[in-house]
Amino acid sequence: MDLYPEVESCNNSDNSHHAISSLVTAAAASSPSTTSTPSRYENQKRRDWNTFGQYLKNHRPPLSLSRCSGAHVLEFLRYLDQFGKTKVHTPICPFYGHPDPPAPCPCPLRQAWGSLDALIGRLRAAYEENGWPPETNPFGARAVRLYLREVRDLQSKARGISYEKKKRKRGPTHEHHQLPSFSTFQALPLPPGDHI
Fold it and tell me: Which parts of the sequence are annotated with region: Disordered (predicted)?
């Protein structure tokens, strides 16, 4: 059973070891010894990987994964914008910076930054899970990181929504008891005879 048929068909022969690695991964994933069903994340990652593979196949001229760069990933992200559902106001729009505009406007719909960020994370993981070296991962390219930061900042301003980094939750925390300040201590009288 082949999990990533579209992507494998776009690999060229000098990268056949990646295709073989993909087949081994697919065979291991479909073996009868694994009885658990894939998580939502794994399913979404597989769908995203297949979609990107199809995009490469339909690219003019067709593009193999071995020749894919950060620029092609950016092209893919811009292509996805046409399917976006997030209203991103332009600076000349009267609702620019308002999170809940009171009326419709002609501003474009785009992919939300959070969706793009999650997509790149899944594709980055899928790339490496399919046997490609992390050093050549186009989804981790500097240009892609800068583009995502730019989209985040633009959408934050346009939509009036702050994208604050989530605070990391630490593991089981040890109760941190704050010591009372010196001002809360009361002087206790010493017992008689213990004075110096």
Answer: 159-196
Strands (E) located in the chain: 86-87, 109-110
CA 41 to chain centre: 11
Q: What's the Cα-to-Cα distance from 154 to each of 27, 80, 110, 116, 164, rounded to whole Å?
A: 43, 17, 12, 14, 14
Q: Give per-residue pLDDT as tens, 29-43.
A: 544 455 689 999 999
Number of alpha carbons in the 13 Å side-chain half-sphere of residue 173: 6
Whole-prediction pTM = 0.65
pLDDT tens column, 99-117 = 888 899 999 999 999 999 9
CA distance 25 to 59: 26
| Orientation angle between helical segments 40-58 and 113-129, nearest 10 degrees | 90
Q: State the average pLDDT over residues 133-145.
A: 96
Contacts of 182 (CB under 8 A, 6+ apart): none
Secondary structure class of 137 (helix, strand, coil): coil
Give CA–CA dist 107/158, Å, rounded.
10
Inter-axis angle of helices 40-58 and 70-80, to 10 degrees?
Answer: 100
